[in-house]
Design a protein that fits this description.
heterodimer, A: 4 helices, 64% helix, elongated, B: 536 residues, mainly alpha, two-stranded antiparallel sheet, 2 strands, globular
């Protein structure tokens, strides 16, 4: 086996030393950050609400029955559905860019 | 030998794994091939490999087993395991691929430079990886114990040895194919269990599994009252359904398997657990290294999407299989709890369900699936640790002029030592639920790499000193609370020890990172690094 060129970084020098080499666009990074935060916010609302209503303090909410099953069951399933929707939205945004 | 057919199926699957590793070696001619398969893996293959890598003993054995014992509250671990991937996809996958090469250390050095960061990144990788290895060995030890009837000490030794040998055998290409194949096996095995359970015991209707669970007191709640039941009128012992019905009718104040909030101590514990799970994958080295095996950031995200869809199907199936296990094995699970074998009951419920549904053949298939889960995760862990040891420390710090062969020997020796340490820890923690052990590792990862990496990708004001402070503080705090939890210490410096260390670890790490960054100036090549990370 032979060593790949550049297979280990130098001791002290960062890899991206030249500003011209990479270029940068603060506005684009800010836009990406904002869209990432929006997507995460959508998911985190469903995730943390579902998690917290299933605790002893709030279980009277999670125990509300809908169609014979407790709300906790539906909110758990909802996390998966929201997760897949957010995933698709994230990849769609990438394609639009 | 108690189960010769099942054991034969397991051995055949192990030989297949060894063959794939051996086959993969011919694609490994450079160190880049060994570490990340030359970045040539397709998005789809990587998606399946990430699924196989991620679905460890915790997912396949621990979560379903815990649901079978305690009910719906244990499903939260699975939901958290899933949620973590959304976080990684949205915030980290693309920038990570665009800015790194082999390891987390590369990303940090890419922005800040310096040997200290490489060493610290390696140390954190090794701590998380070794602790994550423990539940894989515990699960494999219990599985071999069930199949061979040997003592636990012997079986964990065998399991750890197999895992160590697998690392010596292969590079990332063989590991990728193995993980992808094992991912498919895991998903199919879980779905087969669901379909067989529904057909054999629930009239072909999976919803009946849930409605039966509504009328069942979980074994952990039933174990305290089962002794108060009168013997059956015909003088025989209770069948599974009859026992569940007798306990339900006799003790109507007890919760059902779908009653939420029974197994969760309080909101603070739950918040710490779900926070740790959400952030954890963003700090797991064996998962992060997989993003470097593809061509670019788009492929990294496409692969993650496939993994996410697979995980959604898998973890919803886990809920149904857990409940089916509870119904079908009800008396047996209660007996194991009465005998004080909670860890074994949790971790072995699924293989026992396989035995119940289809005898030794299905037991063998499930055992092969479980072993696939443990091996793919373990080998992924050991490769990520070996890469970090060899690339970050040996080649990057200790001996930059070393030959490739010396680096490889160093990596493999290190992997052997770490396997030994994990083996000792597996003996100490033999009765712990593997899902809980894994969740603790998520907590440590969430307190260390996750905040550092996220801020490195998105915050220009992050400094090198802030990264070091965050990694050290996060590691110390999360480890302190992890070991306090396992040692049954209720408080540390007056702070209540929670089931998962993430809440304290993440807050402490963030305070350290942001606080130190605000008073220091070494922001590295922030603009160039971020432009590189967010290109495309």
């Amino acid at each position: 086996m032979r060593a790949e060129p550049g297979a280990h970084a130098s001791r002290e020098t960062p890899n991206y030393a030249s500003p011209d080499a990479a270029g940068h666009d603060d506005a684009a990074i800010s836009r990406k950050l904002r869209s990432a935060i929006k997507l995460l916010a959508i998911f985190c609302v469903s995730y943390f609400v579902a998690a917290m209503i299933a605790t002893p303090e709030f279980r009277h909410i999670a125990q509300i029955e809908l169609l014979g099953l407790p709300l906790a069951f539906y909110t758990g399933i909802l996390v998966f559905i929201v997760g897949i929707i957010v995933t698709r939205m994230c990849l769609n945004q990438d394609q639009e860019r | 030998m108690p189960n010769p057919i099942a054991f034969s199926i397991l051995v055949a699957s192990l030989l297949a794994v060894v063959y794939v590793s051996w086959w993969g070696k011919k694609f490994t001619s450079t160190t880049t091939d060994f570490y990340v398969a030359g970045g040539k893996i397709s998005a789809r293959l990587n998606g399946w490999a990430m699924f196989g890598d991620y679905c460890s003993a915790a997912s396949f054995l621990g979560v379903a087993g815990a649901i079978a014992l305690t009910g719906i509250d244990s499903w939260w671990v699975a939901i958290g395991f899933f949620g973590a991937w959304i976080f990684v996809l949205v915030i980290l996958a693309g920038p990570l691929k665009s800015s790194g090469k082999f390891t987390v250390g590369d990303v940090l050095v890419g922005r800040f430079g310096g040997r200290s960061l490489k060493f610290l990144a390696m140390l954190t990788t090794v701590v998380i990886g070794t602790l994550y290895l423990v539940p894989q060995i515990v699960g494999a030890g219990h599985l071999f114990q069930l199949l061979l009837g040997l003592d636990y000490l012997v079986t964990v030794f065998i399991s750890a040895t197999i895992m160590g040998v697998m690392v010596v055998m292969g590079g990332m290409m063989g590991t990728t194919y193995n993980q992808a194949i094992q991912g498919v096996i895991l998903l199919v095995a879980m779905l087969v269990l669901l379909v067989l359970s529904a057909i054999v015991y629930f009239g072909g209707n999976p919803i009946a599994i849930i409605t039966q669970a509504m009328d069942t007191v979980p074994p952990t709640s039933a174990v305290g009252v089962v002794g108060q039941l009168p013997p059956p009128a015909d003088g025989t012992s209770y069948g599974a359904l009859a026992l569940a019905e007798a306990i339900r009718n006799g003790f109507q104040n007890l919760p059902s398997a779908l009653t939420p909030g029974v197994g969760v101590p309080n909101a603070l514990n739950q918040f710490s657990l779900v926070l740790g799970l959400l952030l954890g994958v963003a700090g797991l080295p064996h998962i992060l290294i997989r993003f470097y095996t593809v061509k670019d950031a788009k492929d990294a995200k496409k692969g993650a999407e496939l993994t996410i869809i697979g995980l959604a199907v898998f973890y919803i199936a886990v809920l149904f299989v857990g409940y089916a296990t509870m119904t079908i094995l009800y008396p047996y699970l209660i007996e194991m709890l009465q005998a004080g074998q909670r860890g074994r009951a949790t971790n072995m419920a699924i293989p026992l369900l396989g035995m119940e549904l289809g005898g030794e053949v299905v037991l063998g298939l499930i055992a092969a699936g479980a072993m696939a889960a443990m091996l793919s995760t373990s080998v992924g862990l050991l490769i990520s640790m070996s890469t970090s040891l060899s690339h970050d420390v040996y080649a990057g710090v200790l001996r930059p002029d070393s030959s490739d062969r010396e680096r490889l020997v160093f990596a493999k020796l290190g992997a052997a030592v770490l396997t030994g340490i994990a083996l000792l820890a597996s003996i100490w923690l033999k009765d712990q639920n593997v899902a809980i052990l894994v969740a603790m590792c998520f907590g440590i990862a969430a307190s260390t790499f996750a905040p550092v990496l996220i801020l490195a990708m998105w915050w220009k004001g992050l400094t090198k000193e802030g990264v070091i402070a965050g990694l050290v503080v996060g590691l110390v705090v999360s480890l302190t609370f992890t070991f306090a939890r396992f040692s049954n210490v209720p408080e540390v410096f007056g702070i209540t020890v929670l089931g998962n260390p993430a809440l304290y670890g993440v807050i402490a790490a963030l305070v350290a990172i942001i606080g130190v960054s605000l008073v220091t100036r070494t922001t590295g090549n922030a603009r160039e690094f971020m432009a590189m990370a967010h290109r495309g």
